[in-house]
Amino acid sequence: MQAEATIADFPDSAARAAAEEFRAVAAAAGGDRFAFEGLYRNHVGRIHGLCLRLTGHRETAEDCVQETFVSAWRGLARFEARSAFSTWLHRIAVNTVASRRRGLAQALETSVDGEAGEFDRHANEDTPPIDVEASIAALPEATRHVLVLVGLYGFSHQEAADALGIAVGTSKAQFHRARHMLAVRLGLASEGT
């Protein structure tokens, strides 16, 4: 952690909240479990939403949330405050989901009797889902990840690219593809447009 911030360094309410969070992060990095519990309470909802949208599966998302906060607790001493704590936490969550996906992909490769994945089941349905969450969940993984980070969580393409380990141009292309695929799924555009 870098030098301690004071309230005078943050004149408006949003900046004061940032200063309070900075102090909580510093305290948690020093081993204060109550400070970390406060950080957990402030961020668990958004992290759960992110993990749920990235995985499309409630139990998997809950596991990823738990792993995210365990990783954050263990890595707090290395947090350098170059970005917001929430951005750092989102990156941990994305990495956790990606790591879990890689492990699942490896397990499926070794399984002879593996069932179709969630996307495959949705892709084979005759009627497309009418709800936006189901439509997002049915997108291909890479496309869905960029859409969730950029479109729903407000990451820049650079931040999304960094979090996902892809090029900025790839992030932009995947975002455009996701928007088009959603529009088609929701009946707002035709397949050829």
Structure characterization notes:
With 193 residues, this protein is an all-alpha fold. It has two domains: 1-114, RNA polymerase sigma factor, region 2, helix turn helix motif (Rna Polymerase Sigma Factor, Chain: A, Orthogonal Bundle); 116-187, Arc Repressor Mutant, subunit A (Orthogonal Bundle). Helices cover 69% and strands 0% of the residues. The chain has nine helices and no strands. 25% of the residues are buried. Residues 105-129 have low confidence and may be disordered.
Concise overview:
This protein has helices spanning 13-29, 33-55, 58-75, 85-110, 118-123, 132-137, 141-152, 157-164, 168-185. It is mostly helical and 193 residues long.
Topology (SSEs and partners):
Blueprint: H1 13-29, H2 33-55, H3 58-75, H4 85-110, H5 118-123, H6 132-137, H7 141-152, H8 157-164, H9 168-185
Which radius of gyration do the C-alpha atoms yield? 19 Å
Shape: elongated
Which range does the strand content fall in? under 5%
Low-confidence stretches: 105-129
CATH architectural group of the largest domain: Orthogonal Bundle
What's the structural domain tally?
A: 2
What's the CATH topology label of the largest domain? Rna Polymerase Sigma Factor, Chain: A
The percent of residues in helical segments reads 55-70%
What's the CATH superfamily of the largest domain, by name? RNA polymerase sigma factor, region 2, helix turn helix motif
Whole-number average pLDDT? 78
Q: What's the CATH first level of the largest domain?
A: Mainly Alpha
The biggest sheet, with number of strands, parallel, antiparallel or mixed sense and barrel status, is: none
